[in-house]
């Protein structure tokens, strides 16, 4: 084996040496230049794709910025509408009577309810002086003193009436006690119409933070992206980690980057990790919408886009290689074809001896082919001789087996003599068993034929069961169910007896034995019933054996048909090879689509069905 391996390696090495000039030409003229070109092109194309990908991400971020601007501007319009409402002016007057306030309140409540038709408005709140009616309602009206402790109170005062937006924060509302939502608020001061220098209240337009979070969550740049909102002073306005809200952005590199311009894309390196910072400015608030994307994610996306170009380049190199190979083969095959044709003609015309004579004129690799063909022919001849010898030995074994067989006539006569002796001694049970045994031998031997009629096979199974009933009295019972077949030829059809169909000899007996010894005799009461059926379905003949014994697992049942099991049984009744043998003989007799099928479950008995193609005596002939 090792010598053959070295011979094969030597053949490959010689083939490589023979084509070394072509290999060198391919490496120098095609492979090396193509590799350099492919590497340079891939690097350049990857950079271009990376720039294109980041530009696309910036456009995606700007689209989200437009959406955020639209949402905030709609809230600003709502705030302006309330701010300019005359009833609000009346309510805020220092000189307004309670009657004027009540009249204004009805209009204000309608205005507040109408403002909430804007789906972006979560709540409208008015912080007014304690002397005003409903200032302590704490749903839409709140005391002015309650907002002075807020961190953005001074910013609202300094804005001089312009809208000031807070970051996301948690707020508690008495009308929704089970939920403390995160909200954004747009606040502005309200002045006393009678004394314009005096601040009479603050108007707050609240928006649910989830509205803005949904806009940010729809930004799809990378699987590892982080998108958040930052105020001009570096405070986190909106972030997926709620614990960071209101804190300063920790990354100084990101802060320095987003302060440079209103929008852009920059690559930064921090904590040994490279990433891109994509940012844009929300004009309505001055916040920065920022996305941090790991550089490796962008590089992998660019690499995926680069695959098409790489495949195209590799395809071009492969085509060049194939062209070179075809040219090489054109020269080699042209010369080899003549030599191979010569070898084939010698084999056909002169045989092995003529091929041996040509060794003196052979050279190069074709000599190896000639030797291989010669070895093949000698091997075939040796195999033919070995096959002939094995056939002779097999025939001699068959003759010795035939010589060792008992003469059937002598066996029948001897059993008949024993039967009469038993009758003479009035041993009827012995006589019955001897008579059954004689029938069993007569049916099983079948004059040396390998096929029997279905009727004879059923009779053989019956005799076997009668013998076993003598052996195991009152332990089981059996019955036969048969049906005739109808021949469709002719006008009315004719019934065909089971005696007209042939099957392999000893098909039912191993199945019946299995049902008795493995199904019934191993059950708890060691009693049961065996039912044997013979049915014709179309062109198929079905023989089934059913017992109500212990049954078996479906996996074990399947293995009995696919794996021979020549181990001895515990009760000494022989091997379990029978079902496998019957299944194989059935397939050989009728085809692969036929054979045995086992249906069984533990405790529910077993049914083994043998399916054959209907074959009459005429078809066998």
UniProtKB/TrEMBL annotation:
The keyword Metal-binding does not apply. It is a multi-pass membrane protein. Its main location: membrane. InterPro entries: Bact_2-comp_sensor_kinase, dCache_1, HATPase_C_sf, HATPase_dom, His_kinase_dom, Sig_transdc_His_kin_internal. It is found in: Cell membrane. Residues 508-616 form the Histidine kinase domain. The keyword Transferase applies. Keywords: ATP-binding, Cell membrane, Coiled coil, Kinase, Membrane, Nucleotide-binding, Transferase, Transmembrane, Transmembrane helix, Two-component regulatory system. Pfam families: dCache_1, HATPase_c, His_kinase. The chain crosses the membrane at residues 21-41, 311-333. Residues 366-405 form a coiled coil. GO terms for molecular function: kinase activity. This is Sensor histidine kinase.
């Amino acid at each position: 084996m090792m010598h053959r391996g070295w011979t094969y390696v030597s053949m490959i090495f010689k083939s490589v040496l023979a084509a070394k000039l072509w290999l060198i030409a391919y490496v120098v003229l095609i492979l090396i230049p193509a590799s350099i070109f492919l590497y340079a092109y891939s690097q350049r194309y990857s950079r271009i794709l990376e720039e294109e990908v980041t530009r696309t991400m910036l456009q995606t971020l700007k689209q989200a910025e437009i959406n955020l601007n639209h949402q905030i501007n709609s809230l600003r319009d709502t705030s302006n509408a309330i701010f300019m409402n005359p009833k609000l002016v009346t309510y805020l007057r220092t000189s307004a009577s309670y009657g004027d306030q009540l009249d204004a309140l009805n209009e204000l409540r309608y205005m507040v309810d109408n403002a909430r038709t804007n789906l972006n408005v979560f709540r409208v709140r008015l912080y007014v002086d304690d002397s005003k009616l409903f200032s302590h309602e704490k749903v839409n009206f709140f005391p002015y003193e309650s907002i002075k402790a807020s961190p953005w109170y001074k910013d609202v005062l300094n804005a001089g009436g312009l809208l000031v937006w807070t970051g996301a924060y948690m707020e508690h509302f008495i009308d929704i006690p089970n939920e403390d939502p995160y909200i954004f608020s747009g606040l502005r001061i309200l002045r006393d119409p009678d004394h314009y220098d005096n601040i009479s209240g603050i108007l707050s337009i609240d928006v649910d933070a989830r509205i803005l979070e949904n806009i940010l969550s729809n930004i799809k740049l990378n699987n590892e992206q982080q998108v958040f909102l930052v105020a001009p002073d570096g405070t986190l306005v909106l972030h997926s980690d709620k614990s960071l809200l209101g804190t300063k952005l920790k990354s100084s590199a990101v802060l320095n980057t987003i302060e440079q311009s209103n929008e852009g894309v920059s690559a930064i390196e921090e904590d040994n990790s490279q990433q891109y910072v994509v940012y844009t400015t929300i004009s309505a608030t001055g916040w920065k919408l920022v996305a941090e994307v790991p550089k490796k994610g962008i590089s992998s996306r660019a690499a995926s886009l680069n695959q098409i170009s790489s495949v195209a380049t590799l395809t071009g190199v492969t085509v060049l290689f194939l062209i070179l190979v075809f040219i090489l083969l054109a020269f080699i095959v042209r010369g080899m074809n003549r030599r191979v044709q010569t070898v084939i003609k010698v084999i056909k015309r002169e045989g092995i001896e003529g091929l041996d004579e040509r060794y003196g004129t052979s050279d190069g690799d074709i000599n190896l082919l000639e030797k291989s063909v010669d070895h093949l022919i000698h091997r075939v001849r040796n195999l033919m001789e070995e096959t002939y010898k094995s056939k002779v030995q097999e025939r001699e074994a068959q003759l010795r087996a035939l010589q060792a067989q008992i003469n059937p006539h002598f066996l029948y006569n001897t059993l008949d003599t024993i039967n009469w002796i038993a009758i003479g001694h009035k041993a009827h049970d012995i006589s019955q068993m001897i008579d059954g045994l004689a029938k069993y031998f007569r049916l099983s031997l079948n004059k040396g034929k390998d096929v029997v009629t279905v009727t004879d096979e059923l009779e053989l199974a019956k005799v076997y069961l009668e013998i076993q009933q003598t052996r195991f009295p009152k332990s089981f019972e059996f019955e036969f169910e048969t049906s005739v077949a109808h021949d469709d030829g002719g006008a009315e059809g004719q019934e065909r007896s089971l005696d007209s169909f042939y099957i392999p000899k000893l098909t039912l007996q191993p199945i019946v034995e299995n049902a008795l010894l493995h199904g019934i005799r191993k059950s708890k009461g060691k009693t049961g019933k065996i039912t044997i059926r013979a049915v014709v379905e179309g062109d198929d003949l079905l023989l089934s054996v059913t017992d109500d014994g212990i049954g078996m697992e479906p996996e074990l049942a399947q293995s009995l048909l696919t794996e021979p099991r020549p181990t001895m049984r515990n009760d000494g009744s022989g091997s379990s090879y029978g079902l496998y043998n019957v299944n194989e003989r059935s397939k050989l007799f009728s085809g692969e689509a036929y054979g045995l099928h086992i249906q069984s479950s533990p405790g529910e008995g077993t049914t083994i069905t043998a399916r054959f193609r209907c074959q009459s005596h005429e078809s066998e002939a």
